[in-house]
User: Which sequence fits this backbone?
């Protein structure tokens, strides 16, 4: 996928939202799980706290009220992280009793830390303990009337909550990482599947340009079908415009050429009349100008057709046989070496006109031999056609001169002088070029470069 593409945009946006949603979900789940673990831990501490309260509320025994064993050895182990503490709050009768595990230390009061009381008068929170332990503490005020007012606190090592939450977070990270990878792969395939019709449209358009298809297929999704219909309508409209342009060019050619020919013929019958010579001269100029502009319009109209592909070898072979017959009286032999796979990205009449003009010009100047070579170069993107003759060749200044419209080096040779200039203009319209040089067989080489298919 290229950087500037719909596929990348859809993939990145879907991935970003998936990651954001997974992160938020993970944070929420972790928080909920921690709250659940804390509530379970608080319930455990609450059981110990109620046991202590029950002992305090029991009838007083010799030695005063004192909680009995809670059935948890950790309360007997010094600095184990599990502690209880009972503080009598009656004025003048303050007394603090605690578990053996607390040793000579004490537990802070949550009320002093600003922790609000629950409706039942209890408080839960985190406090620092002996040995810098982090404790989860539950405390509750107990009012036994004449028997006293007590603050009962039970604390447990908060490391259990942390370890339990950390284990859940690690499992959550692994699970969500796997889920994220699955979502990314699924998103990638979903994007590719969703954009497949656009890729088919691209392939269909390439097929139209290559000449293997004339229109887009109709079996596209509802969202893309209007685009395909409008594209097909545009192609049809383009063909109609081209056809009308061709018809108009042909009609205009017949409408103008006939009156000009009549003017030239009438002027020729006047003999040495200066006025007639002037009319004939200007009429010939008009004829050349009309031929030039009509030819340009004709070429431009033909080049607007999309998707024309022409096999080059059959065209060159047919033209060679035709030119040999035309120049049979001079015994001109035409050799053809054409790549059978060479294809021209354009219409056959245009290729015939370009190669025909070059081969005809070579035959006019050749002594006995003309060679035509067709090669497809640069991975099939460029078509090179070289036409050589064994004539006298041309100097660099003569090569420059003959490429201009209507310029002829030898008036004894038949033609109008428009052949090479037409080839130059037609090749230029196709994005190609014509170069003149020295031929290996002694004369002139005309090398035509055109787009290949």
Assistant:
């Amino acid at each position: 996928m290229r950087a500037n593409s719909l596929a990348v945009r859809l993939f990145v946006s879907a991935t970003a939202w998936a990651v954001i949603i997974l992160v938020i979900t993970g944070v929420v789940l972790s928080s909920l799980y921690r709250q659940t673990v804390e509530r379970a831990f608080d319930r455990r501490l609450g059981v110990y706290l109620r046991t202590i309260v029950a002992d305090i509320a029991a009838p007083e025994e010799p030695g005063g009220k004192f909680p009995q064993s809670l059935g948890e050895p950790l309360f007997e182990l010094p600095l184990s992280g599990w502690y209880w503490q009972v503080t009598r709050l009656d004025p003048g009768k303050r007394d603090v009793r605690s578990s053996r595990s607390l040793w000579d230390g004490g537990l802070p009061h949550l009320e002093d830390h600003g922790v609000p009381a629950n409706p039942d008068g209890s408080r839960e929170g985190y406090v620092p303990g002996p040995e810098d332990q982090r404790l989860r503490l539950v405390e509750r005020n107990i009012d036994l009337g004449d028997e006293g007012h007590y603050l009962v606190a039970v604390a447990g090592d908060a490391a259990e909550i942390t370890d339990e939450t950390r284990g859940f977070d690690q499992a959550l990270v692994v699970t969500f990482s796997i889920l994220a990878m699955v979502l990314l792969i699924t998103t990638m395939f979903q994007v590719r599947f969703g954009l497949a019709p656009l890729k088919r449209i691209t392939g269909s358009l390439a097929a139209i340009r290559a000449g293997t298809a004339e229109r887009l297929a109709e079996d596209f999704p509802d969202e893309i079908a209007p685009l395909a219909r409008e594209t097909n309508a545009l192609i049809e409209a383009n063909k109609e415009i081209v056809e009308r342009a061709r018809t108009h060019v042909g009609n205009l050619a017949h409408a103008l050429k006939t009156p000009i020919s009549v003017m030239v013929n009438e002027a020729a019958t006047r003999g040495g009349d200066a006025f007639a010579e002037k009319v004939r001269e200007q009429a010939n100029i008009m004829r050349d100008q009309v031929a030039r502009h009509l030819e340009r319009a004709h070429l431009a109209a033909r080049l607007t057709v999309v998707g024309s592909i022409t096999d080059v070898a059959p065209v060159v072979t047919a033209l060679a046989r035709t030119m040999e017959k035309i120049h049979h009286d001079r015994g001109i032999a035409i050799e053809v070496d054409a790549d059978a796979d060479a294809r021209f990205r354009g219409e056959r009449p245009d290729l015939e006109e370009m190669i025909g003009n070059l081969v005809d010009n070579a035959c006019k100047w050749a002594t006995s031999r003309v060679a035509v070579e067709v090669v497809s170069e640069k991975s099939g993107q460029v078509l090179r056609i070289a036409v050589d003759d064994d004539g006298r060749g041309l100097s660099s200044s003569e090569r420059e001169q003959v490429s201009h419209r209507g310029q002829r080096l030898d008036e004894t040779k038949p033609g109008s002088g428009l052949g090479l200039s037409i080839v130059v203009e037609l090749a230029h319209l196709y994005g190609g070029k014509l170069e003149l040089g020295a031929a290996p067989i002694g004369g002139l080489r005309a090398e035509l470069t055109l787009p290949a298919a």
Summary: Residues 226-303 form one domain. The first helix runs from residue 6 to 57.
